[in-house]
Design goal:
The structure is a homodimer of 351-residue chains.
Chain A: H1 8-15, H2 19-27, H3 34-46, H4 53-60, E1 65-70, H5 77-90, E2 94-99, H6 104-116, E3 122-125, E4 153-155, E5 157-159, E6 165-167, H7 173-184, E7 189-194, H8 200-218, E8 226-232, H9 237-243, E9 254-258, H10 261-273, E10 282-285, E11 302-305, H11 307-323, E12 335-338
Parallel strand pairs in A: 1-2, 1-3, 3-4, 7-8, 7-9, 9-10
Antiparallel strand pairs in A: 5-6, 11-12
Chain A binds a DNA duplex (16 and 16 nucleotides) through helix 2 and helix 4.
Chain lengths: 351, 351
Amino acid sequence: MPQPLPTSRDVARLAGVSQATVSYALTGRGTIAAATRERVLEVAESIGYRPNLAARSMRTRRSGRLAVITGVTLDNQLRLLAGASEVAEAAGYVMETHTVDGTVDERTARVRDLAASGQYEGVLTLVPVLPEALTSGPSDRDGEPANDGTTPVVAEATFDEQMRTLGDLADASTVEVFVETLVAAGYRRFAHVAGPEQYASARARRDVFLSAVARAAADPATPDVVSLGVLGGSWSGDDARRAVAEIPADALPVAVIAANDHLAAGVVRGAAERGWSVPADLVVTGWDNVEIGALMIPSLTTVDVDFPEAGRAAMRRLLAAIRGEPRPPAGGPIHRLVWRESTGPADALPT
Amino acid sequence: MPQPLPTSRDVARLAGVSQATVSYALTGRGTIAAATRERVLEVAESIGYRPNLAARSMRTRRSGRLAVITGVTLDNQLRLLAGASEVAEAAGYVMETHTVDGTVDERTARVRDLAASGQYEGVLTLVPVLPEALTSGPSDRDGEPANDGTTPVVAEATFDEQMRTLGDLADASTVEVFVETLVAAGYRRFAHVAGPEQYASARARRDVFLSAVARAAADPATPDVVSLGVLGGSWSGDDARRAVAEIPADALPVAVIAANDHLAAGVVRGAAERGWSVPADLVVTGWDNVEIGALMIPSLTTVDVDFPEAGRAAMRRLLAAIRGEPRPPAGGPIHRLVWRESTGPADALPT
DNA sequence: CTGAAAGCGCTTACAG
DNA sequence: CTGAAAGCGCTTACAG
């Protein structure tokens, strides 16, 4: 049933040339007369010839394929993948996606395994892994080479020695801006509704929250700033809703930094259930700029994350590593604060 | 720098056997003594031998790879892909994702091209294409073979002769349940906030809305049921918010069927801007069951869509086509109505 | 139960 | 500028 596909030998026979000439005509590599080249291309086209990529790959030892490791949970990963795929395709690579689950060690093992498989010219992981799985490019000054293999492995995010996460997406420094801005606007009591401990981004946001509030409290100008603590600990908006019950009633007005928009939506709902008004009694910030957040009542103050750009940047780093080029310069910032109704009227806050 | 990976010849030499024996030991195909097999496996393991898949593929003429075509827009696609990938991996295939954009004709051409490339054992498209791009399996009674190629092509959704979409995800029949239930609850004036014309799912929801309202109006028991028309026409929640302005003020109470949750959120906000209360003055339904919809005030009545199952089902159909098996039986329903606050108190509506 | 040999479809020095 | 030949790493009849 599977009728044989035409091969370069067929093209050669029909065009009255050798297989080598067909190869030269198609790849544009050797030297070849324009007329010959044209005739070969015509014949190839006419019989619907498509080079067998497996054969080509075996001969050239280049698979033209990249592996991208993604996690199971976040919807945002698709936008990351779209950005990465855009850059990979433009560079002539096909991207294969592998989904991993499990602990850091398991993810790290999976990444090493894919790199060792020899099937790929490079591996990009969008989920954090231990540094030992990564190769460092020739000009990558800031990390010691850990993977001695031959396949470059690059990560969007990695763990440093204290198991903190480094990477664009895990950068939580905008939480500091939230806190400072709200302190300047007069808020004194702060709470954080955190995401799960095992998420690097969740830990980063929590840590920045705690240090920013501590710094404000240490500031002689605002000695009355106080942290009401870290609540929650999952990505469930319903948990966030329940967490509002733990905020003391006499703490109003209170400012809540939620680890993402779903949690922020839960906080709004939890506040309503206690008869609190947002933003009059409680202000809240989210993260991710989910589309619906702009339409909620009140609309959510949040952090817009340029996922496609993060994906593109990560893929650019992988391509550079494959080509032995220096690590490309960082692109623009991928985080942007979006102030909306959930933190009060715009004129009460800086833009 | 790229130090050569060990080959089956290396394993053979080290184990003191022939290359053929190594192949038999690894694939478990020929007949081989248990002791020999074990020794070969040990050697292979010890030198970290991994078969070169390109070479194997060239010899067996089986690539072990499937192409999945996905669109650029919907976040939900990731969940579809996850389901499809689960089934593909379990069957021993690697899945490669290709993103397409453009018109139906362009998408159709792209799918045909991928099928003709000979790189894949099968192609699954999650975006609608014309039937001419599809192959029909040997036992696929309900469609004539259009693609004469050798690579099976299966679609999650396809267009019929009237360019209507057929497929699980495009099934909009639950819109009918929304309308009928709201008519039974006493609502008489209905509006639809539609998605973009070029989306099959948007067209299907609009069509079912129109026919369901027409049917209710034709029912002697409810002759006063009336359609206020189709508003909107994009996936932008902000457009939906503005569309509320087109609803006549004297139409209250009104029931709005929105094509998805983002649009429904826009409708809620648009209603608030006109001083209308949801659900007292206006009830609204969405689609997709986005996580945040359960936390909004009011929470959104919606349709939960089992995207992973839709992906699994589509991949099962592709695998059956590849194996020449009959089309697998349909799984359970992938749509489930979720009644929430945006259509009024639960006790006023059936569950 | 095991090995020698052919061949999958390409590309690439090397001659001419 | 073009062709003959080798070889990428596997698998698979076919002998033995």
